[in-house]
Every structure is written in structure tokens, then in C-alpha cells.
Amino acid sequence: MSTFIRLSSDDIVINTEKISTSTWSNNVNNLTTAHTSSTQAVFTSATSSGQFYIEVFNVATDSTSTTPEVQYALSYGHKLGSGSLDFTNDTGSFGFSATRANYGQYRSLVFGDETRDFKFDQFVSEDIYAINVNRARYKQALKPGSLNFKLKNGSNEIFLTDDSITSTGSAVLTNLGRQFNIVSGSNGIMQGTTLSQVTDSGSYGLFYPDAGVIILNPACLDAAASDGGIALGTGTNAHTSDNNHQKLYNSISASGYFIVDSEETISSQFYFVRAKNKEFNYTTNPSFIDINGNLNFDSMIDNPKSYITTVGLYNDSNELLAVAKLSQPITKDFTKEALIKVKLDY
Predict the structure, then answer these.
(1) pLDDT at 282 over 90
(2) Nearest Cα to 150, choosing from 140, 161, 142, 139?
(3) Do 273 and 330 meet the contact criterion of CB atoms below 8 Å apart?
(4) CB-CB neighbours of 285 under 10 Å
(5) How does DSSP classify residue 11?
(6) Is 305 exposed, middle or buried (0-12, 13-18, 19+ CB in 10 A)?
(7) Are 231 and 225 in contact (CB under 8 A)?
(8) Which of 156, 192, 172, 72 is nearest to 120 (CA)?
(9) What angle do CA 138, 139, 143 make, to 5 degrees?
(10) pLDDT over 80 at 293, yes or no
């Protein structure tokens, strides 16, 4: 029968560390190319999916060499429903549109209600741009300080990042988890000393790494290049399909620069299994004894020798919970002791 040795508290060590990887498919660090799908980005009616969002792929959707995968989605929201067609163009339903639904959805996700408005530093905005990183692209969260992306419109361009390094990792906590500001700069370091980097328009946006969401401030993007914007030209016409999220897509696609890492916390439990010199020297293989319990091999009487190949971890009911296989057998006799470290990740 098997021999069980109880592990003491000194034999068990728990370690936790964060692992970072690239977010985009195939471990691509910088998403230099972006593609949309002609079957998804449709703007023909007020309820078309393209009125609500645009999915962005890593390769063209008609490519035959690689299966396209969604990397992120773009959307535009307006508090009053401007910038898209009304669902029903009739008295009493004006302003009920895809952009109004988007704005209400995101503020409900962030604030938990639909009464508060998005505020970028001290600037209150009636509209937003949203970038939703596809859930399959990141692990537990996006990594603060790794966000680097560029927006370009003609000759105008801005480099944006979050301010997690500048603010020494502090963040506002919301219903979507941590909230950092989107600012001009790189690698989590803000360029300049103020969040309101565009005159009278507040910060460039908000970053929610735990939910994979980036909220951008249209007022900053619409500002002239001399004021820190790119003159994006967000349209806020009533009952009009301004396709603002298409403008944001064109800006990101033209820049060819979008970097953000993902991270996850890995907890490892180490079990230090010790085989002392007097333990585990005799095999438990039943073929080594006869029907009377005598050893079939006399050499095992004075010079027993066994080989450790497997470590089993059991609960108090002697039920096998985990098995660790050694890369090669370890010789064990009365002159040798063994220390085997078993690592469980979860």
C-alpha cells in the first residue's frame, strides 16, 4: 500500500506575480493595420449594427490566408441622440437614436445610472467616442502604462497614453473598475503638467483597464492642431447619420500605431516534498513479495533501492488531487535524501 506523509505549513509556499503579454492577435505588439467588415459596418438604416458600432479586424475580412479576428470595436455616443438617424422620425421620438443609446449605455456602465454626464477633468461633455477592446484579446485586464496610440487626420496627429505612471498608479474607482485619464504622452507619462491639455476642452479621455474600455473626448479631438487636437470634425446633426465612429476609425487606421498590453495575476503554490534517508527506500510494487510477504529479491534486504518517478498530492481522505511527474527517475536508498518542489499555477 502507499505511504502518506503529511505536509506541514513550512512545506507550502504561495507566490503571486503579474504576467504581461501583447493584447492583439498572434502576440502582435503594435496593431499597424486595421480593417472593417462590409457586412457589419452597414449604415443603411437607423437600426443597422453599423449605426451603433464598427468592429475592427487585424486583417481584411475577405483574406484567404489568415482568419480575421475582431481586435476592438468603435462607437460614438451623444446624450441627445445627435449624429445618427432617429429610430422613428416622428413627433415624440426625435433624438431616440443609436448614439443616444450608446451614450446611455456607457454612462450606466461607468456610473451605475443615466443621470450623470461624462466629465473630462473639469469639462462636461454631451458626447463621447468609445473604444472597446475585444474580451478575447486580453486576459484579466489591460495593463496601465502600456497604452500608446496615435490619432491622425491629414497632417495633424496626437500621441495618447494613460496617466497611470504620472499619477503614481492612483486611480478613481468606478463601476467599470479603475479609471485613469487619457493624456498626451507615452508609456503612462503625461506630457506637460495639466490634464486639460486642450483649451476649454478638458482631458483627451478616460481609460478603464479592467473593462478594456477607452472613452475619448470629442471636443479635444475636434480642436485645431494648434490647440492640441486633430480637427476630427465630429458631426452633431439631428436625425443625420454623421458616421462619427467611422471618422475615428479612419484616424486610427491612418496612424498605424496602437499598442496596449494585457496582464493577469498568476498565483503559484509550491509544495516542498521531502523524502528523508529512511523513507521511501522500499518499493510498494506487489510483485516484489511472495504470497507469504517475503521479498522475492534478496538484494533488497540489506541494500534496498527504489526510484521516485511521481509525486501525488492527496487530501485528508487520501483522495488523489494532483500528480506531478519527474523528468527523470530519482534514485533513493538509505544514503540519499530527496527534495522535490511541486508547483501548481491557478
Answers:
(1) no
(2) 161
(3) no
(4) 8
(5) G
(6) middle
(7) yes
(8) 172
(9) 70
(10) no
> Which residues contact residue 279 at a Cβ distance below 8 angstroms, ignoring those fewer than 6 apart?
3, 5
Q: How many C-beta neighbours within 10 Å does residue 78 have?
A: 27
**Which of 247, 245, 244, 177 minimizes the C-alpha distance to 212?**
177
DSSP per residue, 279-296: SS-S---GGGB-TTS-BS
pLDDT in tens, 142-192: 999 999 999 999 999 999 999 999 987 788 999 999 999 999 999 999 998
Give SS3 for 218. Answer: helix
- DSSP lists the bridge partners of residue 343 as 270
150 touches 255 (CB < 8 A): yes
- 213-216/127-133 β-pairing: antiparallel
Region of 121 (left: φ > 0; alpha: ψ -120 to 50; beta: rest) is left
The beta strand positions in the chain, using DSSP E, are: 12-22, 54-57, 70-78, 118-120, 123-125, 127-133, 141-142, 148-153, 156-162, 172-174, 177-186, 189-190, 205-208, 213-216, 258-259, 261-275, 306-314, 320-332, 338-345
Largest CA distance in the chain: 101
Residue owning grid cell 494648434: 226
pTM of the model: 0.79
Domain spans in the chain, listed from the N-terminal domain onward: 9-16+265-345, 24-259
Residue labelled with grid coordinates 496610440: 149
